[in-house]
Amino acid sequence: MITTLILSVITAASVFSFVAIGADKLLAKDGISRISTPSLWLFAFFGGFLGVLAGGYLFRHRTEGEILLPAILAAVFWLWLLFVP
């Protein structure tokens, strides 16, 4: 039950984060006000680490460490929640 809930949160947050990274890339191209890096860190921490990592690499956006390390740390946290009793 808890595992299903955690996986549901990770899935929903990852989809949201992926869309946010894509939107931020479009905003960056147009020179419009963008989504802040700390906001993207929060998306990753609250379960969207897969979306942040996938979006960063797919859109070639913010992959120089400013997003990568926090997303990996968030992944470790969530995987620990899933697999450590």
Concise overview:
The chain is mainly alpha-helical. The protein contains 3 helices and no strands. The protein has one domain (2-83).
Walk me through this protein's architecture:
This protein has one domain (2-83). Helix content is 79%, strand content 0%. Helix 2 packs across helix 3 (68-83). It has 85 residues and is an all-alpha fold. The radius of gyration is 13 Å and the shape is elongated.
What key phrases describe this protein's structure?
mainly alpha
Flag low-confidence runs: none
Beta content: under 5%
Q: Count of helices?
A: 3
Overall outline: elongated
Number of strands: 0
> What's the story with the biggest beta sheet?
none
Helix/strand class: mainly alpha
Distance between the termini: 14 Å
Pattern of helices and strands? HHH
Secondary-structure blueprint:
Layout: H1 2-30, H2 37-58, H3 68-83
Helix pairs in contact: 1-2, 2-3
